[in-house]
What does this fold into?
Amino acid sequence: MKHLFVAAFSIALLAGCASSKPSATNPNAPKESYAFSGKQSEKYLSTIGIPFEITMSDVARQINSNIKESIYEDNSMEDNNADNFMCKILKRENIEVTAQNETFFFKVPLKVWVKVGYKVMGMQIPPQELAFDFNVKFGTKFAISPNWEATVQSFPVGYDWIKKPVVKLAGIEIPITPLVEKALVSQQSTFLKALDDAVKKNIEVKKYILQAWNTASQPYLLSDKYRTWLKVTPTELQMTPLSTANNKVSSTIAIKAYTETITGNKPVVPAVSNIPNLKIISEIPNDFQVGVVAEIPFTEASKLTADTLVGQKFTFKDGKYVVNVTDISVYGSEEKLIIKAGLSGSINGTIYFKGVPTYNPQTQSIFLANFDYDLETKNLLYKTANWIFQGKFTKTMQDALTFQIGGQVSDMKKQIQANLNKTVSKGVAMNGNISEITPDRVYLTPTSIIAVVFAKGKLNIKVDGL
It folds into this structure.
């Protein structure tokens, strides 16, 4: 009986020793693979506004500088079916321009000389020369056509006599205003066409938009530190209808474009000599957006995680089992991040975790969603050390694999903000504001975790002279 008890005790002791003997784990490592060989350019469809206004003082100054003193001449009494009329029209003072309800209104002070023959009570009176002053008034409907030409359609509004034409006959002044008015009305279309041509000549929108198009297409350095460039690829031009206020005509032209962030050397973009036709839309959206790329190299991710975990001791089942983390490294397997963890203690060997890198906009960090043991590791542990699934080990590992990128994102946002508010060339300035940061995607390259967020806001280009 005594020998039986000793034998039973020995078996129990050996069983206890066997239960605390370290387990060895050597699962096969998940295959390393990547969907992307390096950083990808981030492309978004955006709108860049080009606001412009035409002040009536500018229109008046340009027209007055181009319309010389002589506006119209008819030097023959025989032309126009022998109309018995000659005329010279001179600009008396500067032309005045106002705007109302999308219409330009012009007051043109004129000095007129006429030589006119006429009959009084059936008698042919020798041609008389007259000089008089009056102000012609007309309106002009102005618009930009799809081919970027200014369309101008003028119409008469009336005129004010400053000095009415009269002729003296036998000492008597005879008003001939109706005769002169009839003659002037017959020449009105010619006169208005001359003024229309002057307006069109002085409103050349296309050359300024071409300048803005080529300026917008040139890559801008967003971050010297991260060697990031903003490349804009215009695709379409839009414009809101003209509106008038405070004696100004205003509108906004929009460049619809793909904005793209590129890392590395400055891209080369040749200038273009032509631009697409214009599309008129009711409202220009403020939807400028640019990708912001934050990068966490695998070496840094491994170090940050190791600083937290290596040397930590984890106990299970009230201290019956103890596991020490000896080393940590990470790599990619398509969209998943693989964590290789070296362990000692109750488990000696290597285990593998996996998770999908995901951006958390609230904490501005990357965490691993669907975090779990790799399938082969999990199956092996179920057979040899299923106690490891209890406790906080897995949760602690997942928490340690959270990486803050708020500093990088904030830094990039500041640099983008600064670079969107500057003069980019003579007469061309950008004015932008980043109002929102929104998550986009996270992907893996052979060297890094790449997080992409896009900065949304508004960007305008101001062109002097437009």
